[in-house]
């Protein structure tokens, strides 16, 4: 008897296995098999904190000049970037690297091209104190905010203390940035089962994007942001830009010229491309990627198909009501736009 039950077991297990697999398939969303997932809208946002973060995001008084805000280089009217090869900082300084979009950056495993900041909070302290960007200091930024009674009251309301620290500043900015996601791109609608959401050419482009190997690096909901990869895997990438990528963070020679794989969400809006901003158009970027990452030269038609697919990744842009910033008080330090 014991033997009989034993011998039945594998069959039962097989059957159960088949049933649960079928149940899973029925319940699984249409995109379960795809290397790319739709963008989800963040839950549990703290509206007061987001609103404060939005003010700080747009406030140029966080810079020495009183002229440069986060939005100067990550313009939310232009896909969260500045559309320049490299950014312009304090005193019209030429920036060292292309400004990546802030849209969906909360989905990246780390921040910056070389991933040197682990998250948005850590990142947000950087530009304020960077002499080539906002050229301020954390102490001066906090002093400035403390001199403005409306800010003091708002920080108190959000954080429940009247300390007003740089950690609160970066935490509020990060909370705002977490809301900068772009759901419901046409491609996401397709992923969720609306087969009419993209056309034949765009679908061909997606198939090529998958089958030629782009998804090895550009995957997940952000089509990027999940790994650091060599720029020029198959063929070296030529550039005058001195950035060394991940090597600058780890000192590991094997990671020289490894960069965080950038998101391809909204890539139609975030030209020019690559860390040095060298590719002006999507056609150029796709051509370069094919050759140096995959050793493949796309035909004109193939290139156009992939570009058409990439344009289906433009999502609903955050709808932003411009904040009215609290006025400076008599005590607020005055801007210093020029060094003379
Ligand atoms: C002068 C232009 C400039 C200003 C001002 C500026 N940024 Fe940036 N930002 C950049 C550049 C350039 C990079 C890329 C730097 C790098 O990777 O080394 C960057 C990177 C980032 C990233 C990383 C995105 C990613 O996917 O890696 C975030 C997030 C960000 N900035 C947010 C902010 C916030 C918040 C502020 C305001 C406190 C700000 N930036 C101000 C130019 C600027
Ligand atoms: C081996 C990994 C890898 C593969 C494969 C790959 N990419 Fe990339 N891709 C990257 C990295 C890394 C960057 C950023 C490089 C830099 O700027 O130095 C990038 C950048 C891009 C950019 C520019 C994005 C921006 O905002 O600057 C586009 C567009 C792009 N890739 C498309 C593609 C396409 C299309 C394919 C397939 C033909 C592909 N990639 C294959 C790793 C990869």
From TrEMBL:
Which Gene3D superfamilies does the record cross-reference, listed alphabetically?
Cytochrome c-like domain
Which keywords, in A-to-Z order, does the entry hold?
Answer: Electron transport, Heme, Iron, Metal-binding, Oxidoreductase, Periplasm, Peroxidase, Signal, Transport
Residues bound to heme c 2: 214, 217-218, 289
Needed co-factor(s): heme
Q: Where does heme c 1 bind?
A: 70, 73-74, 90
MF terms (GO), sorted A to Z = cytochrome-c peroxidase activity; electron transfer activity; heme binding; metal ion binding
One Gene Ontology cellular component term attached to this UniProt record is:
periplasmic space
Cofactor note as given: Binds 2 heme groups.
Q: Which InterPro entries match?
A: Cyt_c-like_dom, Cyt_c-like_dom_sf, Cytochrome_c_Peroxidase/MauG, Di-haem_cyt_c_peroxidsae, MauG/Cytc_peroxidase
PTM summary from the entry reads:
Binds 2 heme groups per subunit.
Q: Where in the sequence is the signal peptide annotated?
A: 1-32
Instruction: Tell me the ranges covered by the Cytochrome c domain, including all copies.
Output: 48-156, 200-314
Location within or outside the cell: Periplasm
**Official protein name in the record:** Cytochrome c peroxidase
